[in-house]
Specification:
- The chain is of the alpha/beta class.
- Helices cover 52% and strands 15% of the residues.
- Strand 1 and strand 2 form a beta hairpin.
- The chain is globular.
Length: 304
């Protein structure tokens, strides 16, 4: 069912107000870049989890927010949600323009964002391959860590020094995991500098910049789920249209996770030694490295 125009207008007004709070005076007092993440998951087999995000320059983030909000208002839509758009439900129920709206979001995302990353993980296989893993204890931790690694690699290749704000959608299933695991990783100042970390926060789903991440997470999870069961269908055209040379979309199925585990064993005499090396590579001090090695987090309940 479509929402009435007054409700849509109010939602976009609130979204614009929130953006002005995040970016006062056009963004001159905040981070040079903003990264926005969302996730997509399926509880039915294959249980694929995907974390995806886009990094925007400050000026282009403002442009994207203004243009996408204006377009949604013109369509009488309060927000974009990939699952609703694909299945014609929710705010997209009864609409004939779903493909047009998705194409507009893809074009604007490619024009305004700097870098996109998507990491999909087969959750059941992860549990089989990594029995009680010490590092990255859940598939979500694994995915968000790999997202951070890809952002760090992108920044390193281009000698980017600017700080970045990391933003996640409010209320998603793993919001607590994102907060706590990032806090643990960021106990190392050097790790923060490598990913360009300035802060992290949680934003409403109406925030325009979260919606490209929602689309990418949904598309890459669907593609990865098909790959995991041997589905030979080609990539969806919207996924092909969204992908750029600089973006990194990766699926960790059984073969990739077993290869990752084999590399762990090959890198050192023991898992503990490998963890020390991982800690050093992400910039941890030796004191924190040793704490990292013995870290046994249930980080849904642990307080730091």
């Amino acid at each position: 069912m479509r929402l009435c125009g007054c409700v849509v207008k109010d939602l976009h007004a609130e979204s614009s107000r929130f953006l002005r709070i995040l970016l006062p005076n056009g963004g001159n007092l905040v981070a040079t870049s903003q990264a926005y993440f969302d996730e997509s998951y399926e509880d039915r087999k294959p249980r694929i989890l995907c974390v995806a995000g886009y990094v925007f320059r400050k000026s282009r983030a403002i442009q994207f927010g203004q243009e996408w909000s204006r377009y949604l208002r013109s369509k009488g839509l309060p927000y974009f949600h990939a699952n609703e758009c694909a299945h014609g439900v929710g705010v997209f129920e009864g609409r004939a323009d779903t493909h047009e709206v998705a194409r507009k979001l893809i074009a604007l995302t490619k024009a305004k964002s700097e870098f996109g990353v998507a990491i999909a993980v087969d959750q059941d296989v992860y549990a089989e391959v990594f029995d009680a893993p010490r590092f990255m204890p859940t598939p979500y931790a694994f995915a968000i860590t790999n997202c951070c690694y890809q952002i760090a690699h992108y920044r390193s290749e281009r000698a980017i020094l600017a700080k970045t704000e990391f933003n996640f959608e409010q209320g998603h299933r793993h919001a607590g995991d994102a907060h706590t695991y990032l806090r643990f990783l960021l106990r190392s100042d050097e790790f923060g500098s490598r990913v360009g970390y300035r802060s992290h926060s949680f934003v409403p789903k109406e925030t325009p910049h979260v919606q490209p991440a929602d689309l990418l997470a949904w598309l890459w999870r669907l593609h990865s789920a098909r790959k995991s069961v041997g589905d030979q269908r080609p990539e969806r055209r919207d996924l092909i249209a969204l992908r750029r040379p600089q973006d990194n979309f990766t699926f960790f199925g059984r073969a990739q996770l077993e290869s990752f585990k084999a590399n762990i064993r090959a890198e050192g005499d023991s898992a503990d030694e490998f963890l020390r090396e991982i800690g050093r590579q992400v910039g941890m001090s030796e004191e924190l490295v040793e704490e990292f090695v013995v870290y046994r987090p249930d980080y849904r309940t642990t307080n730091f």
